């Protein structure tokens, strides 16, 4: 199991690294595929055991929206299209609900909309960071805040972990591991700024801003990880899927990155991109 987890982890890092480096259509297409798989994993997990889990109308509408959404952020810089798209998606789901009533419950529609916002829309912020003009290299902070934090938190927790405040959600997570992950991510952000970003942004405080972004991103990413654990526990499942050997499904591997993306984008825009 460890070997499978290690090898699949290396492959994932390599794939994401290549996509982050090239950006553009490649990154957008990869995020779209991850989003579609993540959507189906999440909506399946949220369905009760008695509900039919085959692909149906609400799912088809959701997939069409995800594809059009990623096309919109890829080909247009006008956010009006995104607002129209989200409004159109909501309207389409409700129209389908009314036309097919009582085939689908209102809960089913709510789960569909939630799953689309949770995974596809939130992940799209990674692409938006990559496309910030003159700041595209800052997308690496997402990896530092999510997977970097995961690794450092695991190491700190294994060595020092004694207090476990999240026993109901994730019994193995420790306070010491969380602190180690946050501080370690902040340190990596600081080094990233000193050794690389300073070459492009002549700001004497830029590395400290990146440290703050990576530290806060790591904190929010942990919330994403714990939230995903809560969803699994509420629905009595161990993993969201089995696509990634040793890791589970897309939602199991990208749960922290889903919240790191928006956090890093907002803080980057406020602290670095417009400075």
Explain what this protein looks like in three dimensions:
The chain is mainly alpha-helical. The protein has two domains: 1-23 and 131-275, no CATH class; 26-127. 74% of the residues lie in helices and 0% in strands. It contains nine helices and no strands. It has helices at 2-22, 24-46, 57-75, 80-100, 106-130, 140-160, 175-195, 206-234, 250-273. Helix 2 packs antiparallel against helix 3, helix 6 (140-160) crosses helix 8 and helix 7 (175-195) runs antiparallel to helix 8. The longest helix has 29 residues, at 206-234. The protein starts with a helix and ends with a helix.
Q: Summary?
A:
By secondary structure, the protein is mainly α.
